[in-house]
Design goal:
- There is one protein chain.
- Helix 3 runs parallel beside helix 5 and helix 8 runs antiparallel to helix 9.
- The protein is built from 10 helices and no strands.
- The chain is globular and about 45 Å long.
- It is mostly helical.
Length: 200
Amino acid sequence: MKKILGLILAGAISFSVFAGEKEDLARGIELHGKVGTGKEKTIEECKKVLEPYLEKNITAKAYYGSVVTMEAGFVAQKNPIKALEYLEEGSKLIDEAVKKEPENLELRILRLGNGIEVSASSPYKRYFVIQNDVKFFENEKNLNQLDDETKAYVYLNMGLFKIEEGDLDTALDYLDMAVECAPGSDHAKKAEKILRRYEE
């Protein structure tokens, strides 16, 4: 849970941001991307920066929700009930953001990656929700708006979803596409590692 999404989205900022919020939102997203380094204080910094915009900026709400789910990873061992509360709270905020702007690519990518990571690393399963994001990106109109590296990230997560769903053929196709989109990228390397596992 600590490594959820800061990857490709760390520098992506919604075009709907007002000038006065832009710097804070950029800083919040940057901190969100650094949470995977294992520094718990980064979570509190990120939340502090994004919290003032929760009710007026949908992107801030989504990233805040994501970082709350990451917080679960730091308390899970000592307090699994608290960890579950964080997962529920954070996921709810992300879902509210996507519901508000269902065509927002950035929010869809954030929820897809977050949902895959949360589902894989905790008892809190998000597959039923993120199947909507997979369907969203199965529409080529949406997928083709992404740059190659972001597209590889989406294909990787779609492949992981399809593995969980039991559709191995489609999963392997998506993983192949992740490699083809951005050869040598971290996302492609992860996809290649999974593909090798199924070739053995």
